[in-house]
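=== RUN LOG ===
request id: a7f3
mode: sequence -> structure
chains: 1
length: 148
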Amino acid sequence: MAEYNEDAYKLARKACIEHSCPFERALLSRCVSCGRSRKLNLAEREAIACGDPGVREFCLTFYQALHENAQFALRTSPDAPWPFGKEIRAQCGGVRGLSAVLDGPGDETTDVATAVLEGRKRYTSCDRFPYSEIMRAVVHYEPRKRRP
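=== RESULT ===
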C-alpha cells in the first residue's frame, strides 16, 4: 500500500481553500451547521471552506475568544496544542451555548455564522459575549461516542 503524502495534501488544501473555517471540526462532526460554509472533498477527505470572508473575521474572533475563555474550564495549557476532544467541546459547546444565550435552538441545527452575527448585533462585540454562560455549555457538551 502506498504511503500517504501529508505534505502534498496540505499543499492541495491550501490551493483549494482560500478562506478556512475556524469551526471546521464542529461542522465536520455535524454538531452545528453553517449556511456560509462550502464542503470540499480533497484526497478522500472532507474539508470546509468559508464562503463569506467578511463573516469569517467575526467567527475567527469568536473562535479565539472561546479558546481564551475555555482554557480554565477545559483545563488546558495556553501553550500546548488542544487535543481533538477538547477542541470539539470548545467549538460545538461554544456555538451551541452562544445560540442558547440568544434564545436560539442550541443544537445541531444551530448556524455558526447566524449565531455569531446575532451575538454581535445584541452585544456589539465578541468581547462582550456572556462567556460565563457560554462556558457552561462548553463544559457540559459531550461529543458523540464512536460506533463499535
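=== NOTES ===
The chain has one domain: 17-140.
The mean pLDDT is 90.
=== END ===
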